[in-house]
Amino acid sequence: MTHLLLDLPTHLKGSDFLRVGDWSRDDLLATLDLADELKRLRAAHAPHDLLRGRTIGMIFRKPSTRTRVSFAAGISQLGGDPVQLSTVGMHVDARGESIRDTSLVLSRYLDALVIRTFAQAEVDEYAQHCSVPVVNGLTDDAHPCQALADLQTVRERLGELAGVRVVYVGDGNNVCVSLMIACAKVGASFCAATPAGYEPPAKAVAHARRIVAASGGTVELADDPRAAARGADVLYTDVWTSMGQEDERARRLRDFAGWTIDASLVSLMSSRGIVLHCLPAHDGEEITAEVLYGKRSAAWDQAENRLHAQKALLALIVP
Ligand code: CP
Ligand code: NVA
């Protein structure tokens, strides 16, 4: 077994993780390698206290189960201290202290900051002013930590990433965008099948297409889930109504009718095909219970891998 812990790359110390596209293919793959190693060490109950003495702050402006708990547990497992920050009780929300001043002060107390919020610009502003690494724990635009765990799960199940046919079915949202860019980076063959009007943003698609020109992957858009699912190695979906879009729910339920990942869609996959969902799931909307709990589902390993992928990320970026 390789012992990556003895030979951790140091060039990422101090880096932010705001978008998948900011990181090179090699650095993403190095993170996955370390995530696999940390997963093995945890299973063996072997020590891996790579964040001993470090304090990591977390701000969640949207609900979270996986991201909140996997970061908190992961930081503890690495020997560090997670601190949940409530902005409701901080001056940034209560009395209008600027993000700049908040960042300058938090950087004196913390060794890194994880933020889940609405606007990507808010995370970017924290990163601009923090002298410690800032990690995007989900914004309206992106979910890069999810994409790391997604790649880890695909590679773990299928043994490779380059050339794997990943078909995302549903809303071209934050999760779809980060998955698309991640797939592009590692040379996978990505297809987003969405109803008209729900495609991933054109700028993100153009970015992914520029990346695959070098990586050898492909990026397609489709409007027929059955045609897209044929031969897929990965079928991936997410909720139709993301956090912050609750007032669009009725319209979205109508627009996404027929876009459920069900047993019939799964039967079109390649023989090695797996089903992923970032969770939380809405039974009977974007996925059926039969599929989510069925033998093709890797969604529970995927959720577990949030822990290992984020531990690797922090171990690489926290100075
Ligand atoms: N997939 C994901 O980010 O889940 P949470 O919203 O529970 O963090
Ligand atoms: N697209 C979803 C993902 C939740 C993890 C949302 O933003 O609500």
Q: What does it look like?
A:
The protein has 319 residues and is of the alpha/beta class. It folds into two domains: 3-142 and 306-317, 3-Layer(aba) Sandwich (Rossmann fold), CATH 3.40.50.1370; 145-303, Aspartate/ornithine carbamoyltransferase (Rossmann fold), CATH 3.40.50.1370. The chain contains 13 helices and nine strands. The chain has helices spanning 25-43, 66-77, 91-94, 99-109, 120-129, 144-158, 174-185, 202-215, 225-229, 249-255, 263-266, 289-292, 299-317, and strands spanning 55-60, 81-85, 112-116, 134-136, 165-169, 189-193, 218-222, 234-237, 274-277. It has a five-stranded parallel sheet with strand order 7-6-5-8-9. Strands 2-1-3-4 form a four-stranded parallel sheet, sandwiched between helices. Helix 1 crosses helix 13 (299-317) and helix 6 (144-158) crosses helix 7. It is globular and about 55 Å long. The two termini are 26 Å apart. The mean pLDDT is 97. It binds phosphoric acid mono(formamide)ester (CP) and norvaline. Residues 64-67, 138, 146, 278-279 line the site of phosphoric acid mono(formamide)ester (CP). Norvaline (NVA) is lined by residues 138, 173-175, 238-239, 242-243, 278.
